[in-house]
Amino acid sequence: MKILAIIPARGGSKRIPNKNTKKFLGKPLIAWAIESAKKSKLIDKILVTTDNEKIASISRSYGAETPFIRPSHLANDTVGIEPVLLHALEWLKKNEDYSPDAIILLQTTNPLRLTRHIDEAIRLFRDTDYDSLVSVTEVVANNNPFWLLKDEGGGKVKLLTGDSLKDIKTRSQDLHKCYSRNDILYIFKPKNLYEKKPNLYGDKVKLFIMDEIYHTDINTPEDWEITKGKIKRLRELKHL
What we know:
This protein has helices at residues 29-38, 53-61, 81-96, 115-126, 221-236, and strands at residues 3-9, 23-24, 27-28, 45-50, 102-105, 132-138, 149-151, 157-159, 179-188, 205-209. By secondary structure, the chain is α/β, with parallel strands linked by helices.
């Protein structure tokens, strides 16, 4: 199976200026995503799609391909990920006659991602007939929709599920397990991007359940510092 890794990286980061090229524990943030993919023997090609020449240059120095600069209309923060991925896929097909069997999407905002996570997920996806695989972490009880409350006004409060508060489950053990996407990785068939509504998921989705300790999402200076602390702790525990 030909697996294409795509790493999207815009230059216009607002809350952390130049986030993708800023040094995070000794190397540019984007390098963490590239290196985790480079160490995998299951990935066929690593492509960084960016609108920024500096990001492209750094990405090449760490071993990724940057065969094009992303057009400006696909580089603002209002554009979803699907058009960006579709553009990269179409560019490779047209200019390199390259069509992967599957795509693995690796965001730059989680440097806690390990190569073993990538390899485990690819093997799981490769051995099934699912349209996609999505990495998730289990939602803690107080964030479970069966315990979340929705204020409908006038003193009328319901559970987020629409059920009455009178029917709330009193024990966390009785809650349905729920999961949140952790954006560590998505693996999917290219055909999903060509559906009437382009998407990452398709019809059959496999959840790749991960330990909460590996979850982070760097979008603010506070996230940046918190993630540094998590990495140092993971190293102490020999989990990295």
